[in-house]
């Protein structure tokens, strides 16, 4: 099941993090390189621990910036489907209520990517989303126009605790 929903950054597109058919469908709809991983939204540190190897530095960042637009990339655990992420997985807790409600309803983490064609404009309203995507969505949650916020900042935290910024976003990590 593919869901279009609002987040604190833009309209997202997602599915259960364990629904491999829907994950592949999202890659196809976006025209996204399957080697480029998707991120996952969780509703708790515990849910994150089920998916990823978390060290002290990653936990420090999560406690400081979550919920909010900081995606933390760490080594993934075997439970994560390979079609979602190969070796590392990006995870965050959204500060928007709707993704958190969806996670609770699904009972599992939620794949999250912007609801646009790969490389396309950021969708701040349903009108900004390609009909190709809208026609294939099983569920669309439209709350109107969202603020033009920057994307989530993405950082990779290595096992030794070193941090590399992968994408600059709305948060400056310290």
Short description:
The protein has 174 residues and is α/β, with parallel strands linked by helices. Helices cover 25% and strands 22% of the residues.
What is this structure's SSE topology?
Layout: E1 3-6, E2 11-14, H1 20-30, E3 39-41, H2 45-51, H3 56-65, E4 70-75, E5 88-92, H4 97-106, E6 110-114, H5 131-136, E7 139-140, E8 153-157, E9 163-167
Parallel strand pairs: 1-7, 3-5, 4-8
Antiparallel strand pairs: 1-2, 2-6, 3-6, 4-5, 8-9
Tell me what the structure shows.
The protein is α/β, with parallel strands linked by helices. It has one domain: DHBP synthase (Alpha-Beta Complex), CATH 3.90.870.10. The chain is built from five helices and nine strands, in the order E-E-H-E-H-H-E-E-H-E-H-E-E-E. The protein has helices spanning 20-30, 45-51, 56-65, 97-106, 131-136, and strands at residues 3-6, 11-14, 39-41, 70-75, 88-92, 110-114, 139-140, 153-157, 163-167. It has a nine-stranded mixed β-sheet, sandwiched between helices. The radius of gyration is 15 Å and the shape is globular.
